[in-house]
Design goal:
Length: 428
């Protein structure tokens, strides 16, 4: 699902609405297109046994009634509000929302799956098939066609799977559940405004279990801020109109800080004796300065010109190194995951005919589970390294604490957690 749900992250999407686009009519959308009939009910909507579910459904209906009152006060008309009559409580969504995977994939495994030869080849086909609207969007927003195609491939496998969960049911379920009620209520209200504006009807507003919609998975609030009418038909259709999908995605990145003419980043070679503690997102300087310090492109090539560039070590000192800049950070606004942003950049690079990652990944290094990361954090805190809350998530505070612990041990301070490091922390 898109960046937009990471508003959990995805971000607290703030931005101005820019309604513009190319007036090119699009050829038929690649299969599958939303059909005229209502979308098939998702597996998540299978109702629980009536006896066990009656009270829950009654409380859900009461929550919906209360939400309708607040939505009406916010300007939603009665015709649009009636679309909520078909909303269902979907228990599976609550399970998915509360689930936290115990094991995370290391970057090389994530990239193996997302930047596969098949996805590269299909992306190259799509680049040619939709060249006209892609070029029009690039001219208007400054975002290269291959970047837009890469996000499309990452988010829905080029339209092959953008979810079949009714968005109103998904967001109503999340709002009723209460864990993130304020956020879900805001998204549900935004979804009703989209329906009321006539961009899409409720039956065809489908997407992921978390409410992200369409070919490039916009949350409703992101749709309100970034979706544009690329084909000139008066509607913003990120489900069935590729000009709209392309223009909207490019607009999202442009409004998120994309710098036209700059690279997203590049794989680099670090000089001998490089201080790995400086491979930190907070350490930014012009790529020319990094080059003056001995950082070069592969084969000694000059670095791409970027202001505020950082050195990024997705797998620590033993893995590949990259220089990244403002455009990498713009992709992070779409999905606040460095693995995701790196995958988009590399997939775009491959689609455009460039190389993949050249340096070897440390595939013998096993990723830490959430439980092990929590133990690492607890140990670091006990040792006075201040890793922040022990929540099993590797955030900036934990990485800084890992660096300080590595420095204490005389190890490369790359901030990358390993089982070996955890064992050193466990030692009496």
């Amino acid at each position: 699902m898109s960046g937009m749900q990471r508003a959990l992250p995805l971000s607290a999407l703030a931005a101005a609405l820019l309604l513009a686009g190319c007036a090119t009519q699009s050829p038929p959308l690649p299969s599958p297109s939303p059909a005229p009939a209502p979308a098939p009910a998702p597996s998540a909507s299978t109702p629980a046994p009536a006896a066990a579910d009656a009270e829950l459904q009654q409380r859900f209906a009461q929550w919906l009634a209360g939400f309708k009152d607040s939505a009406r006060a916010a300007g939603i008309n009665d015709t649009t509000l009636r679309t909520l009559d078909g909303a269902q409580y979907l228990p599976r969504i609550v399970e998915l929302d509360r689930a936290q995977p115990e094991f995370t994939r290391p970057p090389w495994q994530y990239l193996d799956n997302t930047v596969s030869p098949q996805r590269v080849a299909q992306g190259q086909e799509m680049l040619q098939q939709w060249r006209a609207p892609l070029d029009a969007a690039a001219a208007r927003y400054g975002v290269p066609p291959e970047i837009v195609v890469a996000i499309w491939g990452m988010e829905s496998n080029y339209g092959g799977n953008y979810g079949n969960t009714p968005t109103l049911s998904a967001l109503a379920t999340l709002g009723f559940d209460g864990r993130r009620e304020a956020w879900a209520r805001g998204e549900l209200l935004a979804a009703l405004k989209i329906i009321q504006a006539g961009d899409i009807d409720a039956a065809h507003m489908i997407g992921s279990w978390a409410g992200a919609m369409g070919q490039t998975q916009f949350m409703p609030s992101a749709f309100a801020n970034y979706a544009v009418d690329g084909d000139g038909d008066g509607r913003r259709d990120i489900w069935g109109s590729m000009p709209d999908v392309i223009a909207s995605t490019a607009n999202f990145l442009a409004r998120s800080g994309w710098q036209a003419g700059q690279a997203w980043g590049a794989e680099v070679q670090l000089p001998q004796g490089f201080d790995y503690g400086r491979a930190d997102p907070g350490v930014r300087q012009a790529s020319a300065q990094w080059q003056a310090e001995g950082v070069t492109g592969l084969g000694g090539q000059p670095l791409p010109a970027m202001p505020d560039a950082s050195i990024f070590l997705p797998a620590g000192a033993r893995g590949p190194a990259f220089v990244i800049g403002p455009n990498f950070r713009a992709i992070l606004r779409y999905n606040n995951s460095t693995n995701y942003a790196l995958a988009v950049g590399l997939l775009a690079q491959r689609i455009a005919g460039g190389p993949g990652v050249q340096a070897a990944w440390p595939r013998d290094v096993l990723p830490l589970s959430r439980t092990q990361v929590r133990e690492l954090q607890e140990g670091l805190n006990a040792g006075g390294f201040d890793a922040g809350t022990a929540d099993g998530v590797m955030g900036p505070a934990t990485r800084s604490a890992v660096r300080r612990f590595q420095q204490r041990l005389g190890l490369p301070a790359d901030g990358y957690p390993t089982l070996e490091l955890l064992d050193r922390l466990r030692a009496p």
